[in-house]
């Protein structure tokens, strides 16, 4: 390597170090600012744990791991949350936007009472427009014991009843931390 190439390499390295130092300073400021907001209780709009998304007054976790409905429910509860309960059109839109193109478990089941209810035992008011055509159908031709007692959110944003042992991604929901 001649002297000219060596000097250019040094210049590039120095520039990279300078840019990296700027990025580190920006990150440090962001972390300190978030820490100050959390400890002073002045966070505006609420805040969520790492890898959770804020919408309204709730935090949402969209898993990349697939579990059965019951294991998904347990995982959410372990995190101080529950499988998602969808109550507004805006919330349906937000969740659907984040789930495409994969199906996800939601907190809706008819396994306890034979009637559809959310995981907090609030009865689900049947809205046909929220379900895939012909659903729910409690299909038993899957070769598994029992009916389809758990609801999944299809990539279309509509519900489908599914056997609870099926492994799908899941959505957890909990209240955001508010200032």
From TrEMBL:
<dbReference type="InterPro" id="IPR001304">
    <property type="entry name" value="C-type_lectin-like"/>
</dbReference>
<protein>
    <submittedName>
        <fullName>Asialoglycoprotein receptor 1</fullName>
    </submittedName>
</protein>
<feature type="domain" description="C-type lectin">
    <location>
        <begin position="55"/>
        <end position="173"/>
    </location>
</feature>
<keyword id="KW-0430">Lectin</keyword>
<dbReference type="InterPro" id="IPR050111">
    <property type="entry name" value="C-type_lectin/snaclec_domain"/>
</dbReference>
<dbReference type="InterPro" id="IPR016186">
    <property type="entry name" value="C-type_lectin-like/link_sf"/>
</dbReference>
<dbReference type="InterPro" id="IPR033989">
    <property type="entry name" value="CD209-like_CTLD"/>
</dbReference>
<keyword id="KW-0675">Receptor</keyword>
<keyword id="KW-1015">Disulfide bond</keyword>
<dbReference type="GO" id="GO:0030246">
    <property type="term" value="F:carbohydrate binding"/>
</dbReference>
<dbReference type="InterPro" id="IPR018378">
    <property type="entry name" value="C-type_lectin_CS"/>
</dbReference>
<dbReference type="InterPro" id="IPR016187">
    <property type="entry name" value="CTDL_fold"/>
</dbReference>
<dbReference type="Pfam" id="PF00059">
    <property type="entry name" value="Lectin_C"/>
</dbReference>
């Amino acid at each position: 390597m001649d002297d000219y190439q060596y000097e250019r390499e040094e210049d590039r390295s120095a520039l990279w170090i300078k840019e990296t130092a700027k990025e580190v300073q920006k990150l440090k400021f962001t972390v300190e600012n978030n820490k100050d907001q959390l400890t002073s209780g002045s966070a505006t709009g609420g805040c969520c744990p790492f890898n959770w998304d804020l919408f309204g007054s709730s935090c949402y976790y969209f898993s990349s791991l697939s579990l059965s409905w019951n294991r998904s429910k347990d995982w959410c509860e372990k995190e101080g949350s529950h499988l998602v309960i969808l109550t507004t059109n805006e919330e349906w839109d937000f969740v659907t936007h984040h789930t495409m193109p994969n199906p996800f478990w939601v907190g809706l089941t008819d396994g306890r009472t034979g009637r559809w209810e959310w995981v907090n035992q609030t009865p689900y008011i049947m809205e046909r427009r929220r379900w895939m055509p012909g659903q729910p159908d409690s299909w038993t031709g899957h070769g598994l014991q029992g009916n389809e007692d758990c609801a999944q959110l299809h990539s279309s944003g509509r519900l489908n009843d599914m056997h609870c042992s099926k492994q799908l991604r899941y959505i957890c929901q909990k209240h955001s931390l508010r200032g």
